[in-house]
Amino acid sequence: MPPPVSHSHRLFSFSLSEDCLCRRLVQAACGTGARDLVLGVEQYCCDRPNPILQVFYVAIIGGTYFIIVQSSFKYIPGYYVSVLHRYLSIVVVSIGAILFVLTSFSDPGTITSENVSQYVSAYPFDNIIYVEKECSTCKITRPARAKHCRICDRCVARFDHHCGWMNNCIGEKNTRYFVAFLVWHFLLCLYGAIILGFIVAGELKDKKVVYILTVYYGIDNSFSALFPHVAQWLLAVHNTQILLVVFLGIIALLLGGFCAYHVHLCLSNTTTNETFKWQDYIFWMKKENAVKASAYTLKASINAASSEAQKSPQSKWKTFFSRSKTRAEEPVVKNNIYDVGWIRNLCEVMVPLSERSSFSCKKSE
């Protein structure tokens, strides 16, 4: 089964395209002008490069860090957290911002008439999911693993997907930055949740909450007895920190799954675009094999009935409708010729083929 992340990506993309009913409702309720306005906004947000999600990312990161500084830095240094984390937090957030800029503004591997011959030689056609053909928009040969992005209006080498958060395509040259961005932000959220957890734990220790509850209030020194009272105190005094821990934990969990999926793609030298292509190929090949197997079974039944009819006419209908031996369906195998072992696959992501000295020497045959 393919990873659930790819299913979610396809479902989300499909949902965005199913908007005809919405347009009709807007036109019926507010008129043609409102419909055209909605259509214009939709085209800007979904079909054109725009910085909306980039601004949203900056707002999330900046806003979250600001809230942490305002609400939690006063507890640093604490019982479990040293003053070092005041400055380390600035460093880790800055590195995340640098990776964001690199991914957003770096060339993903744009294919032009000047470099297309080198890309065609660098990525051979497998004649399964990639066959030699011309890009109808760019009017150049589309190399294997490349795709024309309708949003950026360009052909991109080793195309993975168009990322709205980066306002950029993810391709041959910036996949390394994108994966590093995912890994770093997963670790960043995990780091933030852990440090905030230690801050809260340190406050419990400093304020001697457990000691006061057990000695002065006579509460039994057990987890089941103390938990409701400790939780009540935390939500009353450190509700901001608790909400931040939950928020960062959820984001870390989501990023961790997305990160693991893309690391798997890198190690197997596959892209998100190719994952969908292989899914479609395997689906149709299985259907074709099923049809062939059914045709073979029917032909075998007819031949058997004809043979039996020559010997015993009374049994021809019985033979025809009897269960014939079904031909086993041929297994559909994913033959990824670009998978050359996880070490070389990883090297191809870290040092793209187009940045190697041998690339400029390649000529299309």
From TrEMBL:
<feature type="transmembrane region" description="Helical">
    <location>
        <begin position="209"/>
        <end position="230"/>
    </location>
</feature>
<dbReference type="InterPro" id="IPR001594">
    <property type="entry name" value="Palmitoyltrfase_DHHC"/>
</dbReference>
<dbReference type="Pfam" id="PF01529">
    <property type="entry name" value="DHHC"/>
</dbReference>
<dbReference type="GO" id="GO:0016020">
    <property type="term" value="C:membrane"/>
</dbReference>
<protein>
    <recommendedName>
        <fullName>S-acyltransferase</fullName>
        <ecNumber>2.3.1.225</ecNumber>
    </recommendedName>
</protein>
<feature type="transmembrane region" description="Helical">
    <location>
        <begin position="177"/>
        <end position="202"/>
    </location>
</feature>
<dbReference type="InterPro" id="IPR039859">
    <property type="entry name" value="PFA4/ZDH16/20/ERF2-like"/>
</dbReference>
<keyword id="KW-0808">Transferase</keyword>
<dbReference type="GO" id="GO:0006612">
    <property type="term" value="P:protein targeting to membrane"/>
</dbReference>
<keyword id="KW-0472">Membrane</keyword>
<comment type="similarity">
    <text>Belongs to the DHHC palmitoyltransferase family.</text>
</comment>
<feature type="domain" description="Palmitoyltransferase DHHC">
    <location>
        <begin position="132"/>
        <end position="279"/>
    </location>
</feature>
<keyword id="KW-0012">Acyltransferase</keyword>
<keyword id="KW-1133">Transmembrane helix</keyword>
<dbReference type="GO" id="GO:0005783">
    <property type="term" value="C:endoplasmic reticulum"/>
</dbReference>
<feature type="transmembrane region" description="Helical">
    <location>
        <begin position="242"/>
        <end position="263"/>
    </location>
</feature>
<feature type="transmembrane region" description="Helical">
    <location>
        <begin position="87"/>
        <end position="105"/>
    </location>
</feature>
<feature type="transmembrane region" description="Helical">
    <location>
        <begin position="55"/>
        <end position="75"/>
    </location>
</feature>
<keyword id="KW-0812">Transmembrane</keyword>
<dbReference type="GO" id="GO:0019706">
    <property type="term" value="F:protein-cysteine S-palmitoyltransferase activity"/>
</dbReference>
<dbReference type="GO" id="GO:0005794">
    <property type="term" value="C:Golgi apparatus"/>
</dbReference>
